[in-house]
Write a structure and sequence with these properties.
- By secondary structure, the protein is of the alpha+beta class.
- The protein has one domain (about 5-300).
- It is about 35% helix and about 20% strand.
- It is built from 10 helices and 12 strands.
- The protein has helices spanning about 5-15, 20-25, 30-45, 55-65, 70-80, 95-105, 120-125, 185, 205-215, 290-300; strands at about 65-70, 85-95, 110-115, 135-140, 145-150, 170-175, 175-180, 190, 220-225, 245, 250-255, 280.
- A 5-stranded mixed beta sheet has the order 1-2-5-4-3.
- Strand 8 (about 190), helix 9 and strand 9 (about 220-225) form a beta-alpha-beta unit.
- Helix 1 packs across helix 3 (about 30-45), helix 2 packs antiparallel against helix 3 and helix 3 (about 30-45) packs antiparallel against helix 5 (about 70-80).
- It is globular, with a radius of gyration of 19 Å.
- The termini are far apart.
Length: about 300
């Protein structure tokens, strides 16, 4: 592929998932630069339907240490696909929420609704499982597009993504790059269901089912355990494995968006993508495996 014209080469690379691109980028400086250009374009293409000035949005992400997760992040990771995100999920700490609200208002986003999550019982009724650290969810609309701002009480908004319904959404992009917690599963279009969706006596919860069915319609399969060789608790996809955002099972790749002087901060791995400590988590679903399998069967996933 090195003999291909640059434009043709980058068109081909845009068909490839981030986990595979990261391997190609490691083969030479030229290939690293090519992958960086492809990922720049991929992120900007995902952001532009929501914000006409995509670089300006990334500058706001940078100044607020916010991240984008959900469908938008997954679309960046999987590459070119026959589906496009219909909404965007922005995670921001409560310290920076006012800056984010002001920016959305300036960009023409209209406030639609607020869901305050004051305690665990209310969180369970609203989203179907515990979302640690998220105090409120604000929904905004602009034309036919919607976005949710999830306000996190923890300084590092990344913590919240490990409490959501499945591993397929345990990804994010920031103004500095892209993170994927389960790249080996994303590459085979497989997701493990987080046992928290059935842990609080609200199974099956409508909002959880809608989310899972959305990803199922896009070709993703759900399982109670990963199909690869399993050495409990050593395998990164093991429910009982203690994971951390710096471990070898995660993928962190920096992307230079050229947002201004000193915008690109050289570093290694996850620490270069967001300001804040590493996050540790355990899916902890081995005890619930039979219930998760029943949940998947009943939901037709």
């Amino acid at each position: 592929m090195d003999r291909c014209p640059i434009r043709v080469k980058e068109e081909i690379l845009d068909l490839i998932s981030v986990p595979t691109l990261s391997l190609y980028a490691a083969t030479s400086k030229a290939n690293y630069r090519a992958v960086n250009r492809v990922l720049q374009k991929r992120v900007l293409d995902v952001v532009t339907p929501f914000f006409a000035d995509a670089p300006d949005f990334l500058r706001v992400l940078q100044s607020t240490n916010a991240i984008v997760s959900g469908s938008s992040a997954l679309r960046v990771i999987v590459g070119r696909a026959d589906w496009h995100p219909r909404d965007m999920d922005i995670y921001v700490s409560s310290r920076h929420r006012a800056v984010m609200y002001a920016y959305l208002n300036r960009c023409g986003w209209r406030y639609v609704s607020l869901r305050s999550l004051p305690d665990r019982a209310h969180i369970e009724r609203v989203v179907g499982y515990m979302v640690a650290g998220v105090s409120k969810v604000l929904t905004f609309a602009c034309g036919s597009h919607h976005l949710d701002v999830l306000v996190c009480e923890t300084p590092n908004p990344v913590e919240a993504i490990f409490h959501f319904h499945s591993t397929i959404v345990m990804n994010f992009f920031s103004a500095r790059g892209i993170f994927c917690a389960y790249p080996s599963l994303v590459d085979i279009r497989l997701s493990l269901v987080n046992h928290r969706v059935i842990d609080y006596d609200v199974y099956p919860h409508p909002s959880v089912l809608r989310s899972l069915q959305k990803y199922s319609s896009r070709g993703y399969r759900f399982a109670a355990e990963a199909p690869m060789v399993h050495a409990c608790p050593e395998t990164y996809s093991c429910y009982d494995r203690l994971r951390v955002t710096s471990d070898g099972g995660c993928l962190s790749i920096q992307v230079s968006f050229e947002l201004g002087e000193n915008a690109f901060e050289p570093g290694r791995g996850y620490s270069a993508l967001v300001h804040g400590p590493h996050v540790a988590w355990v899916l902890g679903g081995s005890f619930w495996r039979a219930e998760i399998e029943l949940f998947i069967a009943d939901a037709g996933l």
